[in-house]
TrEMBL record:
Key words, A-Z: Signal
UniProt protein name: Pectinesterase inhibitor domain-containing protein
InterPro entries assigned to the protein according to its UniProt record, in alphabetical order: Invertase/methylesterase_inhib
Segments crossing the lipid bilayer: none
PANTHER family with a match to the protein in the record: OS08G0142100 PROTEIN-RELATED, PECTINESTERASE INHIBITOR DOMAIN-CONTAINING PROTEIN
């Protein structure tokens, strides 16, 4: 996949996410995005990641704007989907074009491709099927399967590989998506 296709994927993602928003919970609490982020995280970098995700999804960050929590949860799941896709493409490109990869690195990247395929299936199911249709049974299972696959990939890699920082960032995004899901009280 070319860089222009990756950029297009990242530009279209917020539109796809906006269509997936739903108000699942009768009497669901509406809150400001910045409040939702501060409820879940204590550290400044984690709050910043949450706010970046909200801005990426086109959420109005003003104090007067409030949305139902399911929208924030869905947005975080879609952000993870898109990030996982970019990392998977980067791994594939390294395998295809980086002739200096050692046999061990190549094996690790191939394993990560499989790990990311599994992680992508689980987080996409959350973002595309479960949250929009308000089916919360097994939601925790799906998040955990996605996160476990990312961690498996991370454990395969040396910290010095170009892919490692991307996988580490994906782990943070998956954990954030999971914790935001606690807002809707189903985890």
């Amino acid at each position: 996949m070319t860089m222009s296709k990756i950029i297009l994927l990242l530009l279209v993602a917020p539109l796809r996410m906006a269509a997936a928003r739903s108000d699942c919970l009768p009497g669901g609490q509406h809150m400001e995005a910045s409040f939702a982020c501060s409820m879940m995280w204590l550290s400044k970098p984690q709050q910043d990641l949450c706010i970046r995700i909200m801005i990426w999804g086109g959420i109005d960050m003003s104090v007067s704007h409030k949305e139902e929590e399911t929208g924030y949860v869905t947005l975080a799941a879609w952000f993870a989907v898109e990030s996982f896709d970019v990392t998977r493409i980067a791994a594939r490109n390294q395998l295809s074009h980086n002739t200096s990869l050692s046999g061990q690195e190549r094996h690790a990247y191939e394993g990560c491709m499989k790990d990311y395929a599994l992680a992508g299936r689980h987080i996409t199911r959350v973002a595309n099927e479960m949250l929009p249709s308000c089916r919360f049974t097994d939601l925790s299972y799906e998040y955990n399967r996605a996160l476990n696959s990312i961690v498996t990939c991370m454990n395969r890699l040396s910290v010095n590989t170009p892919l490692y920082p991307m996988v580490l960032a994906d782990q943070d995004k998956a954990v954030l998506a999971y914790h935001l899901a606690t807002l809707i009280g189903v985890l």
